Amino acid sequence: MTNPSDVPQPEQPGAQPPASNVPPAGYQPPQGYQQPPSYQATGQGYGQAGQPGYAAPMGAANNAPPAGLGYTAPARNTFGLDFNNIGERISNTQGAPQQLVISYWLWIAAAALGVVLSVVSMFTITNALGGLMVGAGITALIISVVFAAFYVFIAIRLKEGARWARLVLSILGGLALISFLLQLTTGNLNFIGSAVAAAAAVLMWLPQSQEHFKS
Predict the structure, then answer these.
(1) I need a labelling partner for 62 at 20 to 30 A (CA). Which of 20, 23, 88, 144 fits?
(2) Range 62-75 burial, b when 16+ CB lie within 10 A, else e
(3) CA-closest candidate to residue 65, choices 85, 107, 95, 92
């Protein structure tokens, strides 16, 4: 037996057709009508990089290098070890605030002083104690060169706005201050380099320098 509810009912006069998201053929939107953002292919947040309306992914702006640098720098949160344009990365300070530029060159000076004072100490010890200490002096010189290269690289990343580089140099600056106080009491010539490094650490935290590390 057939259920009456299964029998198709005739269409009632005046009945509304079922709702549909597809407009009828030939439909033209009213003048001035704009599609919602979710349907715009190149709207804000939906376009492609380099096109109008493109919005960078959340967090990308904070990772970008500071604006105004005179060369292409690595992103802030990367290690950034790249030797392709190392000469320009060392010499070009364009886009960095004056206080940070001074801090940067003080870090470079501290690195150079470390090597120079190691050479002086090596010859001083050799003349005082003879050839027995030549090997130790050469070893100390090699270590100072390695540390100097490390200082220079971290200082470059500091100038390029890397927040992690400022944190590393802050730790090194604190150690330099402690070394400075100890070296003053012993008359060690390395106190000069320690004083320069401590001054550089202070300058990179001044208000003008801090703007370089903000998004």
Answers:
(1) 88
(2) eeebbeebeeebbe
(3) 95
For residue 180 the two structure tokens come to 């400075």
Pair 122, 143: CB distance under 8 Å: no
Q: Is 80 helix (H, G, I), strand (E, B) or coil?
A: coil
Q: What pLDDT tens digit does each residue of the chain (215 aa) get?
A: 555 555 555 555 555 555 555 566 666 666 666 655 544 433 343 344 334 443 445 445 578 999 899 899 999 999 999 888 999 999 999 999 999 999 999 999 999 998 998 888 777 776 766 666 677 778 888 998 999 999 999 999 999 999 999 999 999 999 999 999 998 888 777 888 899 999 999 999 999 999 999 85
Query: What is the C-alpha separation between 215 and 73, in angstroms, rounded?
Result: 15
C-beta separation of 169 from 204 below 8 A: yes
25 to each of 15, 28, 29, 70, 75, how far by Cα in Å?
Answer: 20, 9, 12, 56, 51
Rounded to 5 degrees, what are φ and ψ at 118? Answer: -65, -40
Other Cβ atoms within 10 Å of 196 Cβ, number: 22
Integer angstrom CA distances of residue 158 from 82, 138, 203:
15, 30, 12
